[in-house]
Write a structure and sequence with these properties.
This protein has 159 residues and is mostly helical. It contains 8 helices and no strands. Helix 1 runs antiparallel to helix 2 and helix 5 packs antiparallel against helix 8.
């Protein structure tokens, strides 16, 4: 690993993140920079992991903001399978008690990604990462409504 390159990249990321107001990313990039500067490479590796996680959270948050303007019906790839709808219903009940089942939430998110709803999966993960259960419930409700609308029979048009 070219540590001087890592230090320069972390500095660039820190500047860009600061300009965008991404405080966690800015802080994590600074920690990488400082660890490399004093040649504490073990700490630098740890901080690179923290920087990667902060960038992932920022990415998810940005995707969540983008999905607010797009209809769930526009992104779902057809109807959701029964097992995903069932998991969504179970997740809704869990979130109603302000509780989190990490395994269930990840199963739902992975299923959504598989069926063309990657933005909704990102929005759900972002909300849950922040323990924002209200937003997570809203995402789940929208998905359940979209799934229900997709399975409703279309009225036949009479001539």
């Amino acid at each position: 690993i070219d540590w001087s390159e890592v230090q320069q990249s972390a500095h660039g990321i820190r500047g860009a993140a600061a300009n965008l107001g991404l405080i966690a990313v800015t802080s994590a990039a600074l920690a990488v920079e400082q660890a490399v500067r004093v040649r504490n490479l073990e700490e630098a590796r740890r901080q690179l992991g923290a920087l990667s996680a902060a960038l992932l959270r920022a990415n998810r948050a940005l995707f969540a903001d983008a999905t607010e303007t797009q209809s769930v019906n526009d992104t779902l790839d057809g109807t959701l399978p029964v097992h995903i709808t069932s998991d969504l219903t179970q997740l809704r009940a869990t979130l109603a008690h302000n509780e989190l089942d990490d395994v269930l939430a990840e199963r739902v998110a992975a299923g959504l990604e598989t069926h063309g709803a990657a933005s909704e999966a990102a929005a759900l993960r972002s909300a849950l990462d922040l323990f924002d259960f209200e937003t997570a419930r809203t995402v789940v409700e929208q998905l359940l409504e979209a799934a229900e609308a997709a399975t409703e029979p279309v009225d036949a048009v009479t001539a």
